[in-house]
Amino acid sequence: MSLGDDLAPHLPFLRRYARALTGSQSHGDNFVRTTLETIVDNPEEFPKDVDPRLGLYRTFHAIWSTANIEEDVDPAGNNEAESIAQARLSKITPLSRQALLLTSLEGFSNEDTAYLIDVPSDDVETLVNEAMGEIERQTRADVLIIEDEPIIAMDIETIVRDLGHNVTGVAVTRDEAVAQAHSQTPSLVLADIQLADDSSGIDAVKDILQDFKVPVIFITAFPERLLTGSRPEPTFLITKPFQRATVKAAISQALFFDAATVPA
C-alpha cells in the first residue's frame, strides 16, 4: 500500500483539526494543502517509525509552528475569525490550544500529543488544563441544543451547564429549533442531524443562520453526511457516541472564535 493510501483515511480529520485550530475552513485547508505538498515533494522525510496518522499530524505541526500566524490571512478575504483568535491568543498560548484539541477533539494520547507538538509528555496535561481554564473564563454563552434523544439531550445539557453556560432550550424538531432561536437568540448551537419528526438538523441550522450569526457544533452518528468535501463543512463536528471531554473541548473552541465574547 502506498503512503497516499495510508494517509487518505485521515485527511478529513486533519481538515477538521485544522479548521478548529484556525477558525476558518479555507485557512485550515491551506495548511493541510501545504502539508500534503511537503509530503509529496519530500517523501523521504516523512516519519517512518510512527503510525501514518501521527506522521501526518507531525508534518502538519512542523508547518504550523513555523508559520507567521499574525500575517497568515484567509485567502477569501474573510479574516474575522483570525482577528478574533488573535484577541484571544493574547490571553492563552497557542501551544495550550493545540494540546487541548489534539487530546480532546482528535483523541490522541498525552504521549502522542507530546510527540506532535514537541514537548515533554508530562507537560501535556498542564497545557490542556491551562487552555480549558482560560477559555472558560473568557467565554459565557446562551446555548440552544437541537437533539431528539432525551437521554443524550440531558447529557449535553449537563455538560453545557457544567461549563458555566446557559441553556436557552432543547428542541427536537426543525420547526421547534427555529422557533426557539427566534424566541431567545442563542450564542451557540449544538445540533444533531436526524430529528424526531424525520426533519433535518442541518436544515434547522441553515434556517437559524439565515437570521443569526452563531457558531454551530454538530453532534451526530452520521458524520459522513457532512464530511463530503463537496460543500462547506462544519468547523466543529463530533461523532456519536461522544466523550464528554470532546464536547467540552469543541464548545470551548467554538466560543474561542465567537466575536460576542472577545476579551477587552
Description:
The protein is an alpha/beta fold and 264 residues long. The chain folds into 2 domains: 3-135, PhyR, sigma-like (SL) domain (Butyryl-CoA Dehydrogenase, subunit A, domain 3); 139-261, Response regulator (Rossmann fold, 3-Layer(aba) Sandwich), CATH 3.40.50. It is 53% helix and 9% strand. The chain has helices at residues 3-7, 11-22, 25-41, 52-66, 80-89, 94-105, 110-117, 124-138, 150-162, 174-183, 201-211, 244-256, and strands at residues 142-146, 166-171, 188-191, 216-220, 236-239. A 5-stranded parallel beta sheet has the order 2-1-3-4-5, with helices on both faces. Helix 3 crosses helix 4, helix 6 packs antiparallel against helix 12 and helix 10 (174-183) packs parallel to helix 11. Keywords: Phosphoprotein. Pfam families: PhyR_sigma-like, PhyR_sigma2, Response_reg. The modification 4-aspartylphosphate is found at residue 192. InterPro entries: Bact_response_regulator, PhyR_sigma2, PhyR_sigma4, Sig_resp-reg_PhyR, Sig_transdc_resp-reg_receiver. This is Response regulator.
